[in-house]
Amino acid sequence: MPHVDADIRGQMGTQDFVATASLNFVYVADSARMGNASKEDQRPYAFTDTGFIGQNVYLFCAFEGLACVFRASVDRERPARSLRIRNNQFVTCAQSIGYPRV
Question: Can you give the pLDDT at residue 14?
Fold first, then answer.
């Protein structure tokens, strides 16, 4: 079930291809679930975890012959508003997936 009942792909990145990608993952960290991590450690932990997840998605896409772009260049405020994430959550990165252009 979609989190938002609208096509908001164009809001998920700054590059043109984002709006037409078959799928866009937007990675969101939740600081409330980071246990005793200090405020200064939360962001590095979240970005590191996002990188691990993104690499796994890359490996799957390579196996399936899909195109995949991991993007740190994200307007983090716009997706946060569109996805209605809570104050204790923040967008880390995004990843676009689709069929390669031929």
Answer: 80
